[in-house]
Amino acid sequence: MAQSEAQRGPMRKEGEMAATEIVEVSSPESAPSRYHRICDLDSIWPGEMAVHEVEGVKIIVIHTESGVVRAVQYICPHQSFTLSDGGLEGDILTCSKHLWEFNVVSGCGVNPTGAEITLYPVKVENGGIHVAIAGIEPKYARP
Ligand code: FES
């Protein structure tokens, strides 16, 4: 995935570690039993996001500037455009197609407020980001 400089955040120096303040999320919608190690935590720096595929499902792994790690659905709930082509500014991910905005920490729509994106359960363990997706579906806007 090509990322703009704004999405990538500050340049890291060789040997420098990523931020360590990580907030773990557990979705109340499921009790996942199978986490998959997606990548090393320090491969996604604060302010960056990256597309990964888990069990054939594309997801976006996000490390916010404030150090929160989230895994969200790949497609926009509005008209299924790829959210990874959007812009990440703080906690807000903006879809590049029609500019819907989502708070990636809460999963709630900012504009419009009635929209939501799926947050997949994430844990950071042994320097890796682990995500569970089984039984969790992307959300779509209601007609
Ligand atoms: S497809 Fe994302 S805002 Fe319309």
Identify the notable features of this structure and list them briefly.
143 residues; mainly beta; Rieske Iron-sulfur Protein; four-stranded antiparallel β-sheet; 1 helix; binds FE2/S2 (inorganic) cluster
The assigned structural class equals mainly beta
Number of domains: 1
User: How would you state the average pLDDT, rounded?
Assistant: 84
Tell me the overall shape.
Answer: globular
User: What compounds are bound to the protein?
Assistant: FE2/S2 (inorganic) cluster
What is the helix tally? Answer: 1
CATH class: Mainly Beta
Please state how the strands of the largest beta sheet are arranged side by side: 2-3-4-9
Radius of gyration from the CA trace?
Answer: 14 Å
CATH topology name, in short, is Rieske Iron-sulfur Protein
SSE order, as H and E? HEEEEEEEEEEE
Ranges where pLDDT stays below 50 over 5 or more residues in a row are 1-23
Within CATH, the superfamily carries the name Rieske [2Fe-2S] iron-sulphur domain
Strands, count = 11
Alpha-carbon distance between the termini?
A: 30 Å
The percentage of residues in β strands lies in 25-35%
Helical content, roughly? under 10%
Named at the architecture level, the CATH assignment is 3-layer Sandwich
Biggest sheet overview: 4 strands, antiparallel
